[in-house]
Write a structure and sequence with these properties.
With 551 residues, this protein is an alpha/beta fold. It has three domains: 38 residues, no CATH class; 316 residues, TIM Barrel (Alpha-Beta Barrel), CATH 3.20.20.70; 97 residues, CBS-domain. It has 22 helices and 21 strands. Bound molecules: inosinic acid (IMP).
Length: 551
């Protein structure tokens, strides 16, 4: 029986606009689809219309929730990073000397993402890091600390203090790939009375080893049977080639998302270079080391230097994928796409350690950059990276919702144990790590400690990224500072990914592909956030609180 306005309480009737009739509740969904169409929230084009709203960034809007019909764990996060290479997760670490060296690159790849190795070091040092990523075998330590027969017990104790572990192989000449003569464990040295005794006097010589070529599963079985903490892997001459550690084994066995090319057991590796003539030599050295993806690292990528470099690489290294950038406008992107890039990196001035917009008055708010460039690049099937300004899971989601295929993070990952450098205690008593913009004076002037010495190609990535050849004065575009300890990426990245899955679930999107389609066809809706809406969306009204993000 049809309802009449007389059937409902007066309070509800007052909410009906004049002339509107009451509708049968069971037809609400049809009514929404057929008559109420898209009146709730904004489609992405209206949201990002800069003539009406100005240039937006991530904090300026929210995504409206959709319908949940599946568990968060079902949300698929696989996505392309270049035209030819896809990853199982959309997270990248920046090519910065306080963010990505081999340890970060290995762990980001193990977790399904990608670390881009920085170039503020000699080409040889950078290539060595690429080799470490390509040679990495899950669970095997390929560069173990090795003792010589003349090392003393006291020195071994100091090494234990320094590295945090006490199991060392002893070889004939104290190096890897030399004959294994014994193993030292913490127990051997811990209570030994005379620190000046050589390690040979306390080491164990009844060794259990495994031959090179042993698989992780086989090695695991040998370790379990021998009940030892370490398993040296030796070649046919009994030279040690790598080491397996029981504690690492427990941690390392399962990385189902690891970034690998089809039919390859090796991790995918990316590294950055500049666009100067000497970068061609660097590129050759990196390519010889087995690099898969090259990132051209310029703060303003739309230059004759980059365009020529892209054409050169596509011509000379057809097997390498090239990511160009950085760009924030469609016109910049068009030039690099025409030159042949396989991916684009988007962002200018949005980085957490960046002062480009303040100093150069050039750049663009990041949400506007990501949306405009990604929508254009999508017409040519060129995947885009939303680079910089990511402070939390929500920002990752927004970058991806606006069309980026992946996001790149610097500051958010700089505080993890896999980034280069040591932790130190700040003057407020907090555990922190250094983080600096590559355009900071520190980064531009500093040849990183330990690198550059044996290299033939200079290590000045900061200058290469931010300055031209003839510049006599360095004008900073970044700052140097510190970030809080975030623990290991092996915990932090899974937190980001789980957050991302929950977010897509809230939107009713079962994959990143579905998200992109939903945004394009207007099913995914957005809302602008006023300043007070932003305040409302953050913790407010509490006397004190503890913001613990995951456990
Ligand atoms: P974050 O994740 O917000 O810390 O931003 C990282 C990004 O900032 C990097 O991937 C670079 O694109 C950018 N960046 C790095 N160093 C500088 C700098 O000195 N000035 C401007 N941008 C920088």
């Amino acid at each position: 029986m049809p309802l009449t306005n007389g059937d409902i309480p007066a309070t509800t009737q007052t909410q009906l606009a004049a002339g509107q009739d009451l509708i049968d509740p069971t037809t609400a969904v049809q009514f929404l689809e057929n008559e109420y169409k898209h009146q709730d929230g904004l489609d992405v084009h209206t949201l990002l219309d800069s003539k009406t709203h100005g240039g937006l960034t991530y904090n300026d809007f929210l995504v409206l929730p959709g319908y949940i019909g599946f568990p968060a764990s079902d949300v698929a996060l696989d996505t392309p990073v270049t035209k030819r290479i896809s990853l199982k997760t959309p997270l990248l670490s920046s090519p910065m000397d306080t963010v990505t060296e081999h340890s970060m690159a290995i762990h980001m790849a193990l977790l399904g993402g990608l670390g881009v190795i920085h170039h503020n070091c000699s080409a040889e040092d950078q290539a060595e890091m690429v080799r470490k990523v390509k040679r990495f075998e899950n669970g095997f330590i390929l560069d173990p600390v090795v003792l010589s027969p003349t090392t003393t017990v006291g020195e071994a104790k100091q090494l234990k203090e320094k590295w945090g572990f006490g199991g060392f192989p002893v070889t004939e000449n104290g190096t890897l790939r030399s004959k294994l003569i014994g193993m030292i464990t913490t127990r051997d040295i811990q209570f030994h009375p005379d620190p000046s005794d050589p390690v040979t006097s306390v080491m164990s010589t009844d060794l259990v080893t495994a031959p090179s070529g042993t698989t992780l599963t086989e090695a695991n079985a040998v370790l379990s049977k021998s009940k030892k903490g370490k398993l040296p892997i030796v070649d046919s001459n009994h030279n040690i080639v790598s080491l397996l550690s029981r504690s690492d084994l427990m941690k390392n066995l399962h990385y189902p998302l690891a970034s690998k090319l089809p039919h390859s057991k090796q991790l995918i590796c990316a590294a950055a270079i500049g666009t100067r003539p000497e970068d061609k030599q660097r590129l050759q050295i990196l390519a010889d080391a087995g690099l898969d993806i090259i990132v051209l690292d310029s703060s303003q990528g739309n230059s004759i230097f980059q365009i020529e470099m892209i054409k050169f690489i596509k011509d000379q290294y057809p097997g390498l994928d090239v990511i160009g950038g950085n760009v924030v406008t469609v016109a910049q992107a068009a030039n690099l796409i025409a030159a042949g890039v396989d991916g684009l990196r988007i962002g200018m001035g949005s980085g957490s350690a960046c002062i480009t917009q303040e100093v150069m008055a050039v750049g663009r708010p990041q949400a506007a950059s990501v949306f405009n460039v990604s929508s254009f690049a999508a017409r040519f099937s060129v995947p885009c990276i939303a680079d910089g300004g990511i402070q939390n899971v929500g920002h990752i989601v927004k970058g991806l919702a606006l069309g980026a295929s992946t996001v790149m993070m610097g500051g958010l990952l700089a505080g993890t144990s896999e980034s280069p450098g040591n932790y130190f205690v700040s003057h407020e008593g907090k555990l922190v790590k250094a983080y600096r913009g590559m355009g900071s004076i520190d980064a531009m002037e500093d040849k990183k400690a330990g690198s550059g010495a044996k290299g033939t190609i200079k290590s000045d990535a900061g200058k290469a990224r931010y300055f031209s050849e003839g510049d006599r004065l360095l004008v900073a575009q970044g700052v140097s500072g510190s970030v809080l300890d975030r623990g290991s990426v092996t915990k932090f990245v899974p937190y980001l990914l789980a957050g991302l899955q929950h977010s897509l679930q809230d939107m009713g999107m079962k994959s990143l592909k579905a998200l992109r389609e939903g945004v394009n066809n207007g099913d995914v809706r957005f809302e602008l956030r006023t300043v007070s809406a932003q305040a409302e969306g953050n913790v407010h009204g509490l006397h004190s609180f503890d913001k613990k993000l995951y456990s």
